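Memo to structure team: turn this sequence into structure tokens by end of day. - J.P.
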Amino acid sequence: MSNLKKIDKNTSENKSVDTKTSPLNRRNFFKKSMAYSVSAVAAASVLVPTKALANDPNIMKHVPWGTKLGDPVNKYEYGIPSPYEHNNVRRASPLLSSGDYYGSITLAPLHESMGIISPNGLFFTRSHGGVAHVDPNKYRLMIHGLVEKPIVLTYEQLKRYPSETRTHFIECPANGAPEWRAPQYNNLQFARGMMSAASWTGVRLSVLLKDIGVKPSAKWCLAEGSDNSEMGRTIPVEKLMDDAMIVWGQNGEALRPEQGYPVRLLLPGWEGNLQVKWLKRLEFSDKPWHAKEETSKYTMLQPGGKAIRYFWPMEVNSVITSPCPEKPWTDLKKGDMVEISGIAWSGLGTIKHVDISINGGKDWVEAKLKGLVLPKSWTRFSFMYKFDGNKTIVLSSRATDDVGRTQPTIDEEVDKVGVESIYHRNSILSWEVKENGEVNNVHLRKKV
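Reply from structure team:
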């Protein structure tokens, strides 16, 4: 939907935006609503009178699960989700596949995500030759080239190095790529689901490299995977000596095969393709390798025909996850208080603040950052809103990080890099929320 013109600039679209949080007057509240749930008000849920629940059979009668024994505690050696969460899964699309789902991607259900950690079973996946299944007893990591002590490490030898655990997101640089010209997917999962976040455990690469000694002439490193595609990417030594890690743990357990078991490279904040899975080799040199994935792929084509290479960090970004097309406001009534919430992230640093607009970017108010605010990690944001129900609104979020970068509008991004770039799209995403609460993916453009 291009050149959206549903905002009446002659009216004040932000009248229903509550920019100040005032304490509830509990006495007046109970006088007016009698038996409303105070906890529901605190959580900004849909208000339900207690009297309406008086004949609810789920309260007045024994529920089925309370009248019989549950499963034995040892039924599942590895726990499984509730069967009622059957829609909370990764999804794939033939439009984002090589045709056979080997060189393909599955997308994370961001609309169901909570907090800043993605469960291992829902973490997005990207493979170039299918998911490799590596025998850890036969795994080897070779480090050679311009180093003082070339070495080959087994899985167990690698894990003897001092470990640390850190929380970071990984994002495919093609996240949002189908939408450079116009909206393609009317759901959040396919529009922005090429990313997830986890708590990673492994050894900081600088510790390992100081042990074996990197020669001063070494400026570049080739990281290569052991899967069918033998993914190879060139990485500057400065990044490896900064915050790079070799990780074997994810969210408290071993990496899963689709995440590179037994070992992958972690480059906090940098594009996911660089973070080589099933890592088998690190070779140091004084020159870059110009590998396939950094020449014919993962480059940014400019309007003049030239392509930019080696633009590794993922730019500041954000997305509203509630509401979204999968989580509409169709159950709300006029006057209901509801939370607008989402995720912000930056591969350049830490999220400083997030702004929310309900009128397509005409006016902005600052949202509240929730929970932990960590560098190169997801940050949750929240804003309480009084649902009008009589007009269409356009919700947008705009993040700023601590290095001073702010998300551009679509026009600002397209003016700078054109529409052939594919990668590193971080312009502002907007949702149209109709009077009945339905949500649609829209593009706000002044230029077409």
